[in-house]
TrEMBL record:
Catalysed transformations (reactions): tungstate(in) + ATP + H2O = tungstate(out) + ADP + phosphate + H(+)
EC number: 7.3.2.6
First and last residues shown, out of full length: 1 to 224 of 352
Protein name: Molybdate/tungstate import ATP-binding protein WtpC
Organism encoding this protein: Natronococcus pandeyae
Recorded family membership: Belongs to the ABC transporter superfamily. Sulfate/tungstate importer (TC 3.A.1.6) family.
Amino acid sequence: MRLELDSLTHRYGNEPAVDDVSFGLESGELVALLGPSGCGKTTLVQAIAGHIHPTAGRVLLRGADVTDVPAESRQVSVVFQQSTLFPHMTVSENVAYGLAARDTGSERRDEVVSEYLELVDLRDQRGAYPSELSGGQRRRVELARALAPQPDLLVLDEPLSALDRTLREQLRDEIARIQRETGVTTLFVTHDQEEAMTLADRLVVMNDGTVSGIGEPRTLYESP
Ligand code: ADP
Ligand code: ADP
């Protein structure tokens, strides 16, 4: 198992935001975490990324408890709903940024940056600044930056929610393709059932801090 959540509970004060959640992702899987606003998705993502220490239970990445791993060695990349690109850096500098913390020589770094810009179809924009790109292109730079360090786990936290419908559908297909090509183990977090069902191999459905269903899209939701 690549990622394993073992009876994870997190409380803010006395209120559990995440209440005894257990599930796992096999290596190479694309799993959607689906649930309405307020059900605990962000809290779960923060625990997976090691940003919060859960009240109880464990998050294991390749068998190791994420809270035992120092921040700089954590192999989880997260893409958020809002852009986190650096406006004063070019596209290639932004993508290289994720590699800078690693022990990557500069020549190899250029190679890796080119490889990932190629993957997201942005090789001609490598010298552009984020403000010169379209919303969809900026999302793709974020994907390249998240993937370049070859993380053990990619978490996409509502990555398409701020976009209009057409762009959302285009990027959904892009994400599916990129995930297939790289084979990166991916947790796709969304409140959008259609998005979850079209993208994911399996769904984990959350309600009110707990898992209310888990399985393949067509076994959870009958087609009309
Ligand atoms: P989602 O991402 O699904 O919207 P969250 O994890 O953000 O869910 O929130 C789950 C519950 O925990 C909500 O009731 C929310 O108000 C509460 N919550 C989230 N973060 C905090 C916090 N820092 N302090 C107190 N309550 C919080
Ligand atoms: P999302 O739906 O993406 O979770 P929110 O507006 O619920 O967006 O949460 C945004 C931020 O505010 C998160 O960092 C979350 O932990 C925090 N937060 C959410 N609910 C509360 C709350 N009741 N008290 C304090 N912080 C909260």
